Every structure is written in structure tokens, then in C-alpha cells.
Amino acid sequence: MKKKEHYAMLQFQKEEHQKELLTNQIEIQNQTMQYIGREIHDNVGQKLTLASLYTQQLAFENKAPHIYENIENISKIINDSLSELRELSKSLTSDSIRENNLVELISLECAGVNKTKKCKVEFDYEQNFTTLNYEQKSILLRICQEFIQNSLKYSNCKLIHIRLKSVDQSIQFELKDDGIGFDIHQDSKGIGLENIKKRTILLNGTFELSSNLNQGTRLFITIPLV
Predict the structure, then answer these.
(1) How far is the C-alpha of 144 from the C-alpha of 137, rounded, in Å?
(2) Rounded to the nearest 10 degrees, how much is the dihedral formed by the CA atoms of 204, 193, 104, 127?
(3) Is the pLDDT of residue 95 over 90?
(4) 57 burial level (CB within 10 Å; 0-12, 13-18, 19+)
């Protein structure tokens, strides 16, 4: 009996240690993203702004139609890139996870993907989950981002559907695409399965992953709220 109790205690300590490590990892990731966002704004952004000013000066000095048109095209590319970098910098440095509820965060993510017109993302939810803490919101958002990015990168999908609902004091989080699918026994890394596993464990949750060739991929996660 003592041996079983000792083993159970060691197992509990191991799990708690792993959760602490994962929490620290998430905090480091957030700090790193904020640092990258500031660098984009302060360094790369300023250089692109300077390049834009140079092209405007060149356009003013060169009135030959073919030269002027080429300079204008270059200027447009630079300004579009600058605008995208500003949005990226803003998203990396903002404290949107603290300021918004989970539904708002996922809705923003879906809107960003739909804006690119690479794939349609649908999001269904039943409530806003306003009582979730920062860690819960952050982890569920990262899982959502992981699934979306890998679906866009690997699955050649046309539609991603996300569903968020509360059932028996738990969150059910379902994400699925209509892509080409994959063999989960041979190729589990393509969907960032290890990252999703770690994040789900951190919230004491469970998950199911299913995928079939030419039938899409489905991820179903349950997170307890108590």
C-alpha cells in the first residue's frame, strides 16, 4: 500500500512539475512575441517608412511614364508591406488576451483568415465564457491558431468550422476542416499534435483527433471549468 501511495505521490509531483514548466513556457512565448512586435515596429517599420519616402522622391523626380509607373508599383508594395507589419506588430504587442473574452479572441482570428480569402472559417458558439482566466483563454486561443495554421498549410481545405460550447461544467471545443486529411498513426506532427497535447494537459483537458484521407481532420477537446 505504501509503495502505491509513494508512486501516486511521485506521479502527482511529476504532473505538477510538467504543468509549471508549460506555464513558464507560455509566459516566455508571450514575452518573446511582444519583443518581436516591438522590433518590427521600431526597426523594420522605420526602414520601410524610409524606403517609401525615397520612392516618393524618385517618383517626383522622374516623370517618364514607364519609370514613374515602375516606381509607383514599388511604392505600393512597400506601403502594403508596411501596413501588414504594423498590424502584425500591433497584434503581437497588444494585451488583447486580457482585454477580450474567448469568443472575441477567436472571432478576431477567424476574421483575419477570412480576410485573406484563402479559406472560409465558420465559428459557432453559445456563450462568451467571460469567467475564463488569462491562462485558459491564452491556451485555447493558441490551440485554435495551431489548428487553423496547419489546416491552411497542409490540408488544402476550403472550409474550417469551429464550435465552442459549455456542457456539464466543461468547455467543448471542436475544430474541423474539409481538407485532404492524413494518417494520424504515421504523420501526427503535421498538425502540431504535440503542442496541442501539451496545452490541453495544462488545462487538465482531454482531446480526440481523427482524420481520414480526403475526408478532413477533426479535433475535439474538453476542458473542465471546475
Answers:
(1) 11
(2) -50
(3) no
(4) exposed
